[in-house]
């Protein structure tokens, strides 16, 4: 069967695009900091370079303008003349003076004299503006670099989900794992069933979301994720899969979105990993292969068998039947 459009990709990316915002697009500018953090890296670097380049050119032009209006450019080599900024002869020298002042390098060749009140005011303005620009842009880059999105790439989900019996009950199961030795603190998992349905009033809901119970009442959704775990959803009378059988699974259209959240132990930041399973990726009558083995003084995890399943005897009927 041809692969259909997903709501959430296997790598966790949501296939939703917002269009025709109209006047609501101004809301992005009202929260400019978050907008910059959400941009892709290439746009962040471009804005970073353009902002500093434009700001430097404008401030250097203001220093050159003061020297031009005072006539310092024509008398800068006169030893008896006291200019606003010593040794500023043209725009390149004014630009170098601004860079030396902004970067607090201070080579000592160019400096402000005390007979230039407009230069002192411009220097104060430059210091304040430079501090604001540095705090905004460097803070934006720091937040973007410290985002735990890459940490989610070392959180694994099994390629397929399985339906088989566990403890005499029919269950939907999938596997999660953590590739790093650092733990996910307060890890919690949630599942959403996304399926179109029509209400008794005739309203059609194309992407209706329904919660799948993976142990909210028992605390099984709170994970101690130091080794691969098999997450289990018991199919009972309260489950949306109550009427699902092996035969009806072939004609169903649904998507199971899995959301794993936790705090990164090394950084203390919240991390979220997502994946999804369509009806084609749910295997009826299968079980996951074991991946844990006891070695000399420790437990070993074989991730080569992480996605592997094998068939087990499972009734082809639904729980209702």
TrEMBL record:
<dbReference type="InterPro" id="IPR013518">
    <property type="entry name" value="K_chnl_inward-rec_Kir_cyto"/>
</dbReference>
<keyword id="KW-1133">Transmembrane helix</keyword>
<keyword id="KW-0633">Potassium transport</keyword>
<dbReference type="GO" id="GO:0034702">
    <property type="term" value="C:monoatomic ion channel complex"/>
</dbReference>
<keyword id="KW-0851">Voltage-gated channel</keyword>
<dbReference type="GO" id="GO:0034765">
    <property type="term" value="P:regulation of monoatomic ion transmembrane transport"/>
</dbReference>
<dbReference type="Pfam" id="PF01007">
    <property type="entry name" value="IRK"/>
</dbReference>
<keyword id="KW-0630">Potassium</keyword>
<dbReference type="GO" id="GO:0005886">
    <property type="term" value="C:plasma membrane"/>
</dbReference>
<dbReference type="GO" id="GO:0015467">
    <property type="term" value="F:G-protein activated inward rectifier potassium channel activity"/>
</dbReference>
<dbReference type="InterPro" id="IPR003274">
    <property type="entry name" value="K_chnl_inward-rec_Kir3.1"/>
</dbReference>
<feature type="transmembrane region" description="Helical">
    <location>
        <begin position="45"/>
        <end position="66"/>
    </location>
</feature>
<feature type="domain" description="Potassium channel inwardly rectifying transmembrane">
    <location>
        <begin position="8"/>
        <end position="148"/>
    </location>
</feature>
<keyword id="KW-0406">Ion transport</keyword>
<dbReference type="GO" id="GO:1990573">
    <property type="term" value="P:potassium ion import across plasma membrane"/>
</dbReference>
<feature type="domain" description="Inward rectifier potassium channel C-terminal">
    <location>
        <begin position="155"/>
        <end position="320"/>
    </location>
</feature>
<dbReference type="InterPro" id="IPR040445">
    <property type="entry name" value="Kir_TM"/>
</dbReference>
<feature type="site" description="Role in the control of polyamine-mediated channel gating and in the blocking by intracellular magnesium">
    <location>
        <position position="134"/>
    </location>
</feature>
<dbReference type="InterPro" id="IPR016449">
    <property type="entry name" value="K_chnl_inward-rec_Kir"/>
</dbReference>
<keyword id="KW-0407">Ion channel</keyword>
<feature type="transmembrane region" description="Helical">
    <location>
        <begin position="120"/>
        <end position="143"/>
    </location>
</feature>
<keyword id="KW-0812">Transmembrane</keyword>
<keyword id="KW-0813">Transport</keyword>
<dbReference type="InterPro" id="IPR014756">
    <property type="entry name" value="Ig_E-set"/>
</dbReference>
<protein>
    <recommendedName>
        <fullName>G protein-activated inward rectifier potassium channel 1</fullName>
    </recommendedName>
</protein>
<comment type="similarity">
    <text>Belongs to the inward rectifier-type potassium channel (TC 1.A.2.1) family. KCNJ3 subfamily.</text>
</comment>
<keyword id="KW-0472">Membrane</keyword>
<dbReference type="InterPro" id="IPR041647">
    <property type="entry name" value="IRK_C"/>
</dbReference>
<dbReference type="Pfam" id="PF17655">
    <property type="entry name" value="IRK_C"/>
</dbReference>
């Amino acid at each position: 069967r041809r692969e259909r459009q997903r709501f959430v990709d296997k790598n966790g990316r949501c296939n939703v695009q917002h269009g025709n915002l109209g006047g609501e697009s101004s809301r992005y500018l009202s929260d400019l900091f978050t907008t910059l953090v959400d941009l892709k890296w290439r746009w962040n670097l471009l804005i970073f370079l353009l902002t500093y380049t434009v700001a430097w050119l404008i401030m250097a032009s203001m220093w050159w303008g003061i020297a031009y209006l005072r006539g310092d450019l024509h008398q800068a080599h006169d030893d008896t003349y006291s200019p606003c900024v010593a040794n500023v002869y043209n725009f390149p020298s004014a630009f170098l003076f601004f860079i030396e002042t902004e970067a607090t390098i201070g080579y000592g060749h160019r400096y402000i004299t005390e007979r230039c009140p407009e230069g002192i005011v411009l220097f104060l303005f430059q210091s304040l503006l430079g501090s604001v620009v540095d705090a905004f842009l460097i803070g934006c880059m720091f937040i973007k670099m410290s985002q735990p999105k890459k940490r989610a790439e070392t959180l694994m989900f099994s390629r397929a989900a399985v339906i088989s019996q566990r403890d005499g009950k029919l269950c939907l199961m999938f596997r999660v794992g953590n590739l790093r030795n650092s733990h996910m603190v307060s890890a919690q998992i949630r599942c959403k069933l996304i399926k179109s349905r029509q209400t008794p009033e005739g309203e059609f809901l194309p992407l209706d979301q329904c919660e799948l119970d993976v142990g909210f009442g028992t605390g099984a959704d709170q994970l101690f994720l130091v080794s691969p775990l098999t997450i289990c959803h018991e199919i009972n009378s309260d489950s949306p899969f109550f009427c699902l059988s092996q035969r009806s699974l072939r004609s169903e259209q649904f998507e199971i979105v899995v959301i794993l959240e936790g705090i990164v132990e090394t950084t203390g930041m919240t991390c979220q990993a997502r994946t999804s399973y369509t009806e084609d990726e749910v295997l009826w009558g299968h079980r996951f292969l074991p991946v844990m083995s006891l070695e000399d003084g420790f437990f070993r995890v074989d991730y080569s068998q992480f996605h592997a399943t094998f068939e087990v005897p499972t009734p082809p009927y639904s729980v209702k039947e």
